[in-house]
Write a structure and sequence with these properties.
By secondary structure, the chain is an alpha+beta fold. The chain is 19% helix and 40% strand. It is elongated.
Length: 78
C-alpha cells in the first residue's frame, strides 16, 4: 500500500460552499487481498473519520482508493 498524498483540500462540486473535504489517495497492490483492503479501509473510517469517495481498479489488479473527510472549521471567539 502506498499513500500518494498526505492530504489536500478540495471542494465538492455538488454541495454548498460550506462543504469542504480533505482527500487521501491510497494505492493498493495486486497482492493485497480483499479482506486486507477491507480491514485497512475500515480502520481509516473508524479512527481517522475517513469515508470512501472513489475506487478505481486497474487492469494489472492494483486499486487506487480515494478517501475523504470533512474539514471542520472552528469559528474564533473574540
Amino acid at each position: 500500500m502506498a499513500d500518494e498524498t498526505g492530504g489536500g483540500t478540495g471542494r465538492n462540486a455538488g454541495a454548498g460552499a460550506a462543504d469542504q473535504y480533505e482527500y487521501r489517495v491510497l494505492t493498493l497492490s495486486r497482492e493485497t487481498t480483499r479482506s486486507d483492503a477491507r480491514q485497512l479501509l475500515t480502520e481509516h473510517a473508524e479512527y481517522g473519520r475517513w469515508e470512501l469517495a472513489r475506487v478505481r481498479l486497474y487492469m494489472g489488479g492494483s486499486r487506487k482508493v480515494w478517501l475523504r473527510r470533512k474539514i471542520i472549521r472552528v469559528a474564533r471567539t473574540a
